[in-house]
Amino acid sequence: MFRTHTRSPRQSRNTGRRSPLATTALIAVGLLFTGGAYAAFSTTTASAETSHAASAGTVEEGKKLFQANCASCHGLALQGTDDGPSLIGVGSASVDFQVGTGRMPLQAQGPQAPVKPVQFTDEQVRALAEYVATTGPGPSIPDESLLQADGDAANGAELFRVNCAMCHNVAGAGGALTEGKYAPALTGVEPVHIYEAMVTGPQNMPVFNDANLSPEDKRDIITALKFTQENSTVGGHALGSLGPVAEGLFIWIFGLGAIVALTVWITARSN
Amino acid sequence: MSTVTAPADTTKAPAKKSGGFTAAASNYLDERTSISAAVKEFGRKIFPDHWSFLLGEVALYSFVIILLSGTFLTFFFQASMAEVHYEGSYIPLKGVEMSAAMASTLDISFDIRGGLLMRQVHHWAALLFVASIGLHMLRVFFTGAFRKPRELNWVIGFVLFILAMAEGFTGYSLPDDLLSGNGLRIIDGMVKGIPVIGTWTSYLLFGGEFPGTEIVGRLYSLHILLLPAMVLAFIALHLLFVVVHKHTQYAGPGHTEQNVVGYPVLPVYAAKAGGFFFIVFGVVMLIASLFTINPIWNYGPYDPSPVSAGTQPDWYIGFADGGLRLAPSNLDLVLFNHTFSFGILLPLAVIGIFIVAVMFYPFLEAWITGDKREHHILDRPRNAATRTAIGAAGVTFYAVLWAAASSDIIATHFSVTMEGVIRTLQVLLFVGPVIAYFVTKRICLGLQKKDREIALHGYESGRIVRLPGGEYIEVHEPVSDYERWKLASHEEYKPLMIRPNSRGKITVAQKVRAGLSRWFFEDRISPVTRTEIESSHGDHH
Fold it and tell me: Which residues of chain B make contact with A271, given a CB cutoff of 8 A?
């Protein structure tokens, strides 16, 4: 290739720069430079702009990551094994949720995958998600416009009480399920992960599809949750939003503790 | 407290004989009310000084704080279940349909100046009220202050404890938020679980099918009218008995069954007690301004369909909730076309028996020990080993029930399974009190032995001395006479003998009583006697 291209300008000198080959040559040179520059940069940094253009490359990277980190449980063809379910058709939202919150890769089999530090960069998570999404249609990562927490908080709060509070607690503080499973606390969870959890139903959570809760409803729920979290300190320290148990422990340990210390102080003076 | 401090001036004034406004005013008052006699009598009452004697006062002061803050809340609270659309300033509930009770509570929290603080003061003070009653009861129990002549006052105090819980529960239900509605639903279920009359009682209570539109108004009447009046009446009775019986005191030099050593009410004690009220108020105020309690805006209005995870009652109802959680849920029995839910009846019965046992414990112990003397000097808990052990067993039983009410929170926060927590607590409910009983009793007896040793031979000083003859001895520091009094002044009890009655027969009751008495006093350490102390004086090791 290189040789043919370098030879072509020499031929073009005979016929002048208006030769039809001149255009081809210019394009070739241009491609050579940009391609070389791309190759030089892409080894050090993967820029966000190129991810769209090079989707095929991302999928390929995702496949490699999958084979290295996930296939031992989910199978090389995503078909699932005794240790992990099939991932065919789970969609990119599911992968983004599970890997993006650190739940996957799982460290040990247990009642439930706990949240832990995320093991991959955002690009790697995206690559994994795109790779898994190519194997079958499934819920995809939601659009940014639904994640701005700018919907109707009142509607969202009501939907949350009716649909979510029985497991996640009415203040989103989390709750216990059977056999060591639990609904995690929702404080500090990214809006995108809340949305993805609703559409994919990870672990013991039921799926809330778009017929069940419309995308706008999901946006409202996110709005309500974010509002509650940002305004949870209306009456002072929230004591973990755990309700009467935390309040009771507080009054016995710190309230009554302080009072008893004061009674000792007030009577000790006379001795 | 103003009623106590104001008359203080009236007693001082005549002593000064300097005239002036105070003297004139007190003279004016006395001539019209003859109050000086009462002030003289009450002002000279003696109260001994010990921190544990102030716990009842904490309860009293919390109640005063509750009355004050509660009055503020009644100005703005609407005890109505009429449906309204919330139009206040809390955004996530704007336009949501709710009862007027919930809406007015939200208004108190967000739109009335100082309202949220007053709500939190009221609720925190309520928690402190019941908690301080609990601690006060433990003090009275473990020091034997309930013995003759104070058995009835123990019962009155216990009724106050029950009334306080009722006050708390009715208040908890008033805002008509999701959490309190869930709590009411549990009560409704318990009432309906009672055979034959259950369903009818529930309909009577709620004015129809749960939740109806009546219950908040009814609970409000109880909460602000009937129950506080009863609490006040019983507090008055309780304090009257304290005055009549005089205060108990701990053993010490000069302390006898016939006297009370301490400070007169006026002026020092009244000033101290008055100041202590403001300290308690300050602590409650500080807690209420720094820590959220019952954030109903998070819970939202009550609606029978949603039930939140982690729904618990306030701490003092926790033991009953724990009982429900620990009872096996598959004990339904169908008889004559009626379902008997033993998952509800069993905990109800167990808790009922527990409450009655605590309430009548003074009479039970008096019968077992056969002790008919008056007691004004308190026991050190270790010197009444069996009673202390029974108390520890009771505390353990209560604590297990209490912990069970937060079984789900224990499960999530300690990463254990819910079933594991419940199973463990079920076993602990029966095994825990037994272990606590024996461990406590052994500890008490061990401490008694140590006390006896110290009273006779003094403290180990750690100083080793070699005698001229080559012998090594450790020097024991003798205890002071004041110390020894505390260590050696308690009485010795012995098991009752079985005696035939007037007709020469030994009844079954006598045998039971003798058996129980043996159980109570069989293991004991004899207190140090005067002769033992005197003979030990020449001893040097």
Answer: 49
